[in-house]
Structure formats: structure tokens, C-alpha cells
Amino acid sequence: MNECSVAPRMGRQPLTTRAALSHVALRLFLEHGFDQTTVDDIATAAGIGRRTLFRYFPSKNDLPWGDFDAELARMRAFLAATDTTVSLVDALARAVVEFNRFPSEEVPFHRERMNLLLNVPALVAHSTLRYAEWRLVVSDFAAGRLGVAVDAIEPTVIGWVFLGASLAAYEQWLRTDGSNLIELLESALLLLKEGFTSGELPTVGPGGQA
After folding, report:
1. Which comes out higher in pLDDT, residue 84 or 200?
2. Are residues 23 and 100 located together in one domain of the fold?
3. Does 208 fall in a domain?
4. Which of 117, 159, 196, 199 could disulfide-pair with 135, CB 3.0 to 4.6 Å?
5. Looking at residue 43, what DSSP letter applies?
6. Residue of 77, 58, 69, 3 lying closest to 33 (CA atoms)
7. How many Cα atoms occupy the beta-carbon half-sphere of 40 within 13 Å?
């Protein structure tokens, strides 16, 4: 018998949204471990069939990401709507913050999601594909502003730098109880705007407070 056997729940309505299915998977990963939880376990807990689950997520590794494609589309739309008078760095910083802003009820799920994505070996490897998609949104916008090809060195560097700053904020958030993700992101992105010269920036504590 599977170590993570999940009994079906009688009378329960099946879950058929990406967010709901991702939440079910995250709960099972937290309770039983990522490697010990199977796709069948998740489908059973959600009240759907295995084939139906695969219509929403191509693999178990994709489940923690939730509706990531929709969030990327939202980020693109946010950048496209940003006034051209806003500087490139400010525009991207605002978009990154908005991309990572979640309703309060979603924060616990997101914290568990990022714990998995940054620490489970199978997910760390898979995450490179998703990070590449995220970086492309940033690089596309930067290339348009700079008037260069998206694979030119400038937008490529900008994509990597903004990803690095975001991941640094996430690592700090996960290892510091009570910290505020948005404040940490804003602090990290401020470094990109202002530079790293000692004495020019306020000292930022572990919780994102100056």
C-alpha cells in the first residue's frame, strides 16, 4: 500500500481549479513529503481522476506552482500598462512586487510552496524551467525599453539580476519567522536601484525592517 494512501471523501464536490488542486497537493506534500505523495494520492484527495488532474498539471512537479502561467500573463499586462515615463528599473521593481503580492489567506500556501521549490531536489531542478519563463517576461520588457534584441546581453543580465534579487528576498523570508515578503522584496530591489555603496542605504534587518 502507498505510504501516503488518501481515502476518498464521500459526497465531496470535485476540485477543478488550478489553485484548489495546488492547495490540495501542497497539503499532502506537507503532511507526507513530496517524494512520498503520488499523483493518484492528489487526484483522490481532490475527488477527480488521474487523467483529469493531468489536464491541469502536466506533472507532479508542476503542482506546487499553481496557476503560474496566469500570473506571468498578469505581470506582462502590468508592465505593458506602465507609463513610459517610469524608469526601466522602477517599472520592473513595481511589477516584481505586484507579482509577489498575495491575499492574506494565500500567504501560508505560498510559504509552503516556496519552501518546497527552494529545497526539494526534484523541484529545484524543475524550477529552472519556470524561472526561465519568469526571466523572459523581464527580459522582453527590458529589451523593448532599450531597443535591443531580447537575447542581447543587457536584457539577459537584467532578467537574471531581478530573479536573483527576488530569490534572495524569498530565502530571507523563509528563514525568518514573522518577516514581511513585500518589505524584503522592496529592500532587495532598492539595492538594484541605488547600488551597494556603504553608507548610502539604510541597514535592513532580517524581517525587512530598516
Report:
1. 84
2. no
3. no
4. 159
5. H
6. 3
7. 8
